Amino acid sequence: MDPEPPLHETYKPLFASTKTDHRSLVTVEEGELPLVDLRRLSQKEAEKEKCKEEIGRAAHEWGFFQVMNHGISMELLEKLREEQVRLFKQPFQNKSLNFSAGSYRWGTPTATSLGQLSWSEAFHIPMTDISSSSMEAFATKVASLAKQLAEILAEKLGQNWSYFQSSCLPSTCYLRLNRYPPCSIPYDVYGLMPHTDSDFLTILHQDEVGGLQLVKDGKWISVKPNHQALIINIGDLFQAWSNDFYTSVEHCVVTHPTQERFSAAYFLCPSYETVIESCSKPSVYTKFSFREYRQKVQEDVQRYGYKVGLPSFIACQSVTYNDHACLGPGNETATAGYISNLTLLLDSMSSKASDKSFYNDSLNGIYSLFLCRGDVSGDVCRVCVNNATQTLTQMCPSDKGAVIWYDQCLLQYSDINFFGQPQFYPMLLMWNTQNSTSPEEGNIGTLGLFYSLVAQAPYEENMFGTNEMVVGNGPGRRYGLVQCSRDLDVSSCSSCLGELLNQTEECCIGRRGWRILTPSCFIRYEMYSFYEQTLSDPPRSPDLPQVNQGAGKGRKSTTKTIVIVVSSIAGVFASVLVAGFWYYSSSVKKRKQTGF
Ligand SMILES: O=C(O)CCC(=O)C(=O)O
Ligand SMILES: [Fe+2]
């Protein structure tokens, strides 16, 4: 009897609806993960501390690392693999009978396009369901290694390990045995779709075939297999608990045309009732229970076809930094007199942000303005402008001009009077490293969404507009937002937004999400709702995009004070920024690639 799950037959309709008839020629570099030798944990204090330091740094900078001398013998790893091979070799019909219901999965039942399909099968086994001797021996050892690593990571944050000790129990942790059948069809098919792990941390053992890839500095790199090492990766819960200090990194598995691949992963998970709350303040995320997190992930997968993850839990009051540029010093650096005038001006600007969403002012030859996004509340606007002034003062101490962009606001100043002039530079291009799920949607869909926005928003009272459209017959929607700084007149706003639309060809069309930001206007696109929606927003038809009127949605609106700040990109900013990853195409035009 055939052990193979019927992947070919089941997903044939998805191949048929895919236009690309070849594998896209994206080359992914092979990278070496940091490799930490755990033998030093049982050596003298100095060596031990160095080892802990390396673990903390790798979790912070990479979110992924390898460990050797981890205490699990090669012999045991080989026995586990033999057992795993046996388990997958049994007839397909029997596979779902081995463990408790739902433990066996193959393919992706929710996939509506090839990009959402995982060409693999897996046993997802609660630790308490394990009965075979080699699996049990592995599980015991790997569980204690996971706790030891979590303890070190907690200690590096100055926190107590007891939280993990009491919330992660054998009944809440899992072993997942993965098998990736060879996949020779001439399409891009994932073995496992890009994802972050929804646990505290994962310990993985992969075979020699390779195929694991992860995002580092905004680029996908493939992990060179090291059979003797174990791979450790930080999960979403550790990222939230560490308040973004450790990073839960996007990873995926690519298929091999001729070879099957096996891997085994251990997931350190808490009970569903465990509340995850950042260990430092102010918290980037609202506190949530593990149950709430799992439910939200499932809802998002149903709705969008992929997991949004931690960005769904960003705290309302928190603001998300995108980037800044120091504009100067030019011929002369800012003098002490200039700085003290600037400080006065910025203080006065900040004080205006609680009841104005746009303000421009000048003082002794210094010009400044702030603009809050049309849908954010007064509280968030104030927090954002405050953060912006503080950050620029620290980052550009001797520059006469600067601009900073957050998701929720922008702020700029200069010794040149820029009021009323559309400024296209510095221009920040940011895009999601993933393509949209259907490549053919690219130009027509996205641009259709924006044409009407760009035509109408300049005439709105606050020069702001959002728009959404339905794609296909499914639940999929696309969301767009544009806004101009209100020192511009209608025609300058139109030309500013038009210029941004021209740029989309270069960086962004066909991407899952992107944004282009200048000091005078910005434009953003996502496959999920990232701005506050009014209750009356009607569903849009695919061919008739309409602009949601900016007026009435602004922060003066008394009906809404809660801002939905959901950003797929926000979740990876942490890693991108920590790595300080930048592309400069010229001194004034910046690109930033984000990998969600
Ligand atoms: O098979 C691999 O290398 C990765 C597995 C993985 O990411 C997972 O099971 O979550
Ligand atoms: Fe994973």
UniProtKB/TrEMBL annotation:
Residues 320-418, 424-530 form the Gnk2-homologous domain. Keywords: Iron, Membrane, Metal-binding, Repeat, Signal, Transmembrane, Transmembrane helix. The keyword Metal-binding applies. The keyword Repeat applies. The chain crosses the membrane at residues 562-584. Residues 171-270 form the Fe2OG dioxygenase domain. Pfam families: 2OG-FeII_Oxy (PF03171), DIOX_N (PF14226), Stress-antifung (PF01657). This is Fe2OG dioxygenase domain-containing protein. Residues 535-554 are annotated as: Disordered.
